[in-house]
Amino acid sequence: MTAHPYDALQPDTVLDAVESQGYRCSGQLLGLNSYENRVYQIGIEDAPPLIAKFYRPQRWSDAAILEEHAFGFELDDREIPVVPPLKNAEEKSLFEHAGFRFALFRRQGGRAPELDNEENLRWLGRFLARIHAVGKIERYRHRPRLDIETFGRAPQRIVQESGMLAEYLKQPYKTITDLLLQRVEIAFDMVQPLKLLRLHGDCHPGNILWTEHGPHFVDLDDSRMGPAVQDLWMLLNGEAEERQIQLGWMLEGYREFCDFDPTELMLIEPLRSLRLIHYAGWLASRWSDPAFPRNFPWFNTPRYWEEHIQTLQEQLARMDEPTMRVY
Questions:
Q1: Residues 43-71: pLDDT tens digits?
Q2: 147 is catalytic
């Protein structure tokens, strides 16, 4: 079996990397729930623990990582509750050790958000609006945009070329993904010109932590250019009526700080379609990383792909549901 680059990231390497930035590690090391990168909580002598994120080799350029860091600093400077990386005495935030690039963060805990709470959703809406208001100021030059190619066609090709689809599933997968992507393209064409801004990019409930002071947002690793609604729809759950109510509460808070273009609501189901296709492509593209077969043992099975195709067929029907409204 070919060695994976992360095989060289042993505990001693992690601790030595942190100490290379002037910290004295206590020897405590806890791996955290992250698959794309490797993330650890590191005990520090006579100080609170730190979080060390080791970036997946060859995923981002240095310039793309530093753009993400800069966005985090911009938000933090405006007292928007994100967790930016720490800088060293030379004002650097991206470091390298033993061939691995890494960043350090303060540990900031919290609990999962209660997304059926009216005031919580207004609160999240206000903070997302403030993130987007900053996101509009500049554009990313080195990070990708959320579009049909990167989130749809590219992952579709990855799956088709992965060898994971059984022969009897190849044509059904191609047929349903082609149909979905055609519908997505039509929807995107109807919302032109599409207003793109710097997004959180992966604003699901797991990337929001709640404390007595309210929410804070973590993990800007997937930040990219895209439409504002991408950071909103992933926080909606339940049946259509429930999602409509939740959206209304969130937008009440959002519009206190930022305008929202209601035509973007036409993109909610297309964006959900892209995420479904992208997720399967992401898992297929990472299958050589031992962490993925270990943590997603159900993925490379005919049953998974049968169910995935069924989910995509259901999503195609969902694309015909009435568009959500702004009141």
A1: 999 999 999 999 999 999 999 999 999 99
A2: no
